[in-house]
Structures are given as structure tokens and as C-alpha cells.
């Protein structure tokens, strides 16, 4: 009876959110195949309480754990992509403003004393054709002096820099190009020649300062979270510790995260080919289901008995036929791993809003339909709130950072 009640009230109400971006922290960096923060917000507010653990084993740009921290829960992410690890961690462990300011001031002062010694001639031609020499000089300096293994401050700075390293306006550092993904070097070279584009001279410190001010406009999250760099099948979490999972598993034969982020990966000293090989997103359907089955086993271990699991899984095209992949995953892995199906929610996406629209429809075989596979472990989760307050947001923080 209680399960039937929940089935009836679970609807894609996140579409009611007028500001689809949500909290300003979510604007740090675009990311392919991401979902709007309204989806985790919906389930967090309805099924969790303060300090509950909310987890995303495929955290991507960190939307779920960041939203959890914003709402006073403990948001935890995990990803095998180094870029995703940086973006997630930078959102769940935001340093205080004074620490950010101090680090940036020190970096700029150091650059002023070393800029004449920086050799950009050794950088790849595909990088030199994107940035003005002045801008590239600063980028190379920061590339050599920032390290995401150094701590939260450097991670936060790198995360924000990833969000402004390339794009099409003065808020970005590169020649005009898309912000969400990196076009191939040959395409960029040809595009620059055809359009007679001029490399814009941008001050990295100034652009980064403005970026951080925008990202922190709605304030710093109420709680601090965590992010792990690893395989979703073996996560560093205690058994029976997670109340809610909201996650979008890897797309089936759709996205090469390394290839389409090669500029960002250059900055963090990662090879796109190595990233794609590690992520191994070339599964056929049988292998994909086996992979998800292994993920489900680990999810069963870490979930509380009253835990709720939400997997956002897009339909795919197989031999010109649309496949409800969420349903296939449930049939193969759900019940045999100890879960109970609550509902599969259809979430039709406008073509202009789906990040994977960067390809034509045949490439990648994605469709405009996502489905939310909603499951629970042993006990039906308690409904904490009947409705979500879509207008609720932290107070605007007008404190601006000045590093000059």
C-alpha cells in the first residue's frame, strides 16, 4: 500500500524548477551527459534528512554530491575519470574565501617574477593554436604550480579553471569554441583558418577571479563532503551507510570523455587515450549489463536497509530499435541483487537541452528519453517531504574576491 502511494506521487516535478541551473556552484564547469540539479534535489528533499549520506558512484561534474552538501546532507562522489574527480571534489570541499584569495595572490606574485622564464614553445601545436601567447604563458605557469593532489584549495582553483579554459565569450580563455566539449585539433585548426579567428589576449587570473565570484554567488555549501577516485564496483564506503544514491551510469557506446575533454586533460597532465581506455565505455549490451550487475552488488553492500537508489539511464538505439535500457538493467540485475522496484520514471528531454546533442542522432545512439530507475533495498523509504521547495536557495553572497 505504501509502495503504491509512493509510485503515485513520484513524478518528474524537477521540470517545475524555474532556475534549472539551481545553486550557482553547479555552474562551475559544463560536462557531457550531465543531468539537472533538480533531479537530486527532488529525491534529497523528499527522502533524506540532514547529515544523511547521499552518494553518486559515477559523479561526473558532481551534481548529486554538491546538491546534497548545499542541502545540509553529506554528499559523496566517486569517479574513475580524473577530470570528474576534480570537478566533484572542488564542489563538495569548497575552501573559505580568504584561503582562496591568499593562494591566488601568491600565485600571481610568483608568476610576475617568473613569467620571462616560462617557455611555451615546448607546448603542443594543438594547444598553441588555441591560446594567445600571453594567456598560454599564465596557463603553463598554473599548470606547473597547481596540483589537484595538493589539497582542497588547488582542487577548487583547477575545477573553476576547467570551467573557463575554453569557450566562446570573454569569460573564457581560448579562441572561440564550444564550452561543453573540445572539438578535435584538426577541426579547430580548420575552423580558425576559415573564420579568420584571432586569439584573444586574456588574463587568466582576472578571468578565474570573475569565474569564482560567479560560482560562489549563492554562498558556500552548508556541509562538507568527500570524493573518491576509483571504480564504482569497489568504493571506499562502509556497509549500510548510504541513504540515497542518485547517479547516471556510463552511457552505452556514446561518450568518449577523454577525447572530448582533451584540452582540460592537457592542463591536468592526463592523456585522453589513457582516460578513455580506463573508462572503457565501449561495452556492448551484454557486457554493459554484466558491468551494471557488478555495480549493483556493491550498491547493495553500502546501502542502508531503508535506502533509495535512483539510476538515470538513457534509452539507446540497437539495430534501429529503441531499447529501454533502464528496464533491461532492472531485469538483469535488480531483483537478484536484493532490490525492489519502486518505479521507472520517464523523463523526456528536449533535444536542445540534452548535452549529447553535440553529435548527430546516429552517432552514439543516444535518444531524447532518459528513465529514472527507482529502487529500494529492504524497507520502503520514509517520505520526509511531500513536496519540494523549488524556490529555496541559500542567501546570495555578494562578497567579491579581489586578488590585485
From TrEMBL:
Residue span, DNA methylase N-4/N-6 domain: 14-82, 242-382
Superkingdom of the organism of origin: Bacteria
EC number of the protein: 2.1.1.-
Alphabetical list of Pfam families matching this protein: N6_N4_Mtase
GO molecular-function terms, A-Z: DNA binding; N-methyltransferase activity
Keywords annotated in UniProt: Methyltransferase, Transferase
Any single biological process term in GO: methylation
Entries under InterPro entries matching the protein: DNA_methylase_N4/N6, RM_Methyltransferase, SAM-dependent_MTases_sf
EC category: transferase
Assigned protein family: Belongs to the N(4)/N(6)-methyltransferase family.
Annotated protein name in UniProt: Methyltransferase
Organism this protein belongs to: Candidatus Nealsonbacteria bacterium CG02_land_8_20_14_3_00_37_10
